[in-house]
Specification:
CATH architecture: 3-Layer(aba) Sandwich
Strand order of the largest sheet: 2-1-3-4-5
Order of helices and strands: EHEHEHEEH
Helix content: 40-55%
Bound molecules: magnesium ion
Radius of gyration: 13 Å
CATH class: Alpha Beta
Number of domains: 1
Strand content: 15-25%
Distance between the termini: 8 Å
Largest sheet: 5 strands, parallel
Oligomer: single chain
CATH topology: Rossmann fold
Number of helices: 4
Structural class: alpha/beta
Number of strands: 5
Shape: globular
CATH superfamily: Response regulator
Length: 125
């Protein structure tokens, strides 16, 4: 896939804050081929299994299953799946060693798009 063209991306985006999920989700839908929105890690994992997602974007702090566990399970299914963490917290407990790129809230859309391309390039080019 062409990592510099977001229109070729099918994306999973997991975020438990509804307002953030809807606003960022809407922008991602304009920029990407397809976007699947999840309110927690379990929903995200289920959507990941149901759809072909090229890239994963996830919050860390979420109910039911957090982003660290969701990434762990996704990477167990496909270790080359690029994952971008978007978290509000800079401490180590809110990061995943398995994620390709980590950025911090508040989400800057341009920064997120660049993070997506950087994560993608680590596996698809
Ligand atoms: Mg959260």
């Amino acid at each position: 896939m062409d990592c510099s063209d977001l229109k070729s991306y099918t994306v999973l985006y997991a975020e438990d804050e509804e307002t953030v999920r809807e606003i960022i989700g809407r922008s991602l839908r304009r920029a990407c081929k397809e976007v699947h929105l999840a309110a927690n890690g379990q929903e995200g994992l289920d959507l990941f299994k149901a759809h072909h997602c090229d890239l994963v974007i996830t919050d860390i702090e979420m109910p039911v299953m957090n982003g660290i566990e969701m990434i762990r399970q996704i990477k167990a299914l496909d270790e080359n799946k690029p994952c971008v963490v978007v978290t509000a917290y800079k401490d180590e407990s809110h990061q995943s060693d398995l994620a390709e790129v980590t950025i911090f809230k508040p989400v800057d859309l341009q920064e997120l798009k660049e993070a997506m391309m950087r994560a993608c390039k680590k596996h698809y080019t």
